[in-house]
Design a protein that fits this description.
This protein has six helices and four strands; from the N terminus they run E-E-H-E-H-H-E-H-H-H. The protein is α+β, with helices and mostly antiparallel strands. The chain has a two-stranded antiparallel sheet with strand order 1-2. Strands 3-4 form a two-stranded antiparallel sheet. The longest helix has 14 residues. The chain is globular and about 45 Å long.
Length: 132
């Protein structure tokens, strides 16, 4: 989609990245370097959802999951790239966000009736240990 084709194009702004704790400020999101520095993450990656049960869903349900605003999070681009398709057993955000991340992960998996494997459970239990 070309820039300016939507009444709501975001051209600049400031975001707080919960994964790193950093504030991301952009002055011109038409600049590719700036645009790549912020990405929209699927908290539960689509590939993780697929192996956890989404493979049996209808295309409409998969589309609903992929566009669920509770599942989407604006984050630092390089951090999102390092997360990739990782689950909590293989990737974690900064310690100060692990409780919230674990709670969000669990809520999404529960809402969509997605499976949780033993290493994932262990990691989530550890992250929940940071809750106050």
């Amino acid at each position: 989609q070309r820039q300016g084709s939507c009444d709501h194009d975001v051209l600049a702004g400031t975001w707080h990245d919960p994964y790193t704790g950093r504030t991301l400020t952009f002055t011109d999101l038409k600049d590719l370097r700036q645009a790549e520095a912020i990405q929209i993450d699927h908290v539960v990656p689509l590939a993780e959802a697929w192996v956890s049960g989404a493979r049996s869903w209808s295309p409409a349900r998969r589309e609903t999951f992929a566009n669920d605003l509770d599942e989407l999070l604006a984050v630092d681009g390089p951090t999102n790239m390092s997360k990739g398709d990782g689950d909590p057993a293989s990737w974690r955000p900064r310690k100060g966000y692990q409780c919230a991340y674990a709670r969000r992960w669990i809520a999404i998996k529960a809402r969509y009736h997605l499976a949780v494997d033993p290493p994932e459970t262990t990691a989530l239990d550890q992250m929940l240990g940071y809750c106050h």
